[in-house]
Every structure is written in C-alpha cells, then in structure tokens.
TrEMBL record:
Membrane-spanning residues: none
SUPFAM superfamilies per record: HMA, heavy metal-associated domain
Coiled-coil stretches: none
Entry protein name: Heavy-metal-associated domain-containing protein
Ranges for domain HMA: 9-75
Pfam family, one: HMA
Organism: Brevibacterium daeguense
C-alpha cells in the first residue's frame, strides 16, 4: 500500500497593506515555513497571496493568522 498524496487546495488571500517589496519576503517566508504549505507567493501589485496547502494540516485561518504574525491583515478572497 502506498501513501496517498495529500490533496492540495489553492487559497487566495487579499491584503491592501503591502507598502514595500520587503513585505513580500517576510510573508512568503512565514507561509512557506508552515507545515502543510506546499508553496506561497505574494503578488505585490494586486495585493494577493496565493498559497497551495494541505487543508488537513493547515487551514485558511492558519494562513491568515500567519500573515498577521508578520504584521499584515489578509482576508480570504474568491479570486
């Protein structure tokens, strides 16, 4: 029996607080360090944070809280 690959979910968060490119590095480093996050990318110009994660290990709320821990407010977004 082989281990099943986790089903990854893509979650988009939005924030209008990005003021400098260094914000991007802080947020990406924080999110990519969470167990269950496959990848996280900040789109500076559109204020979006796109995370691919295993929802059984890390929830959308965990992602929002992690962004808050580095000083930014983010909310789940439909797009």
């Amino acid at each position: 029996m082989t281990a099943s690959t986790p089903t990854l979910k893509t979650t988009t968060l939005r924030s209008d607080e990005f003021s400098c490119p260094s914000c991007i590095q802080k947020i990406e480093t924080k999110l990519n360090g969470l167990e269950g996050v496959e990848s996280a990318e900040v789109k500076f110009s559109s204020g979006r944070i796109i995370a691919q994660h295993d929802p059984q290990k890390v929830s959308v709320r965990d992602l929002v809280n992690a962004v808050a821990e580095v000083g930014y407010t983010a909310k789940p977004s439909a797009i």
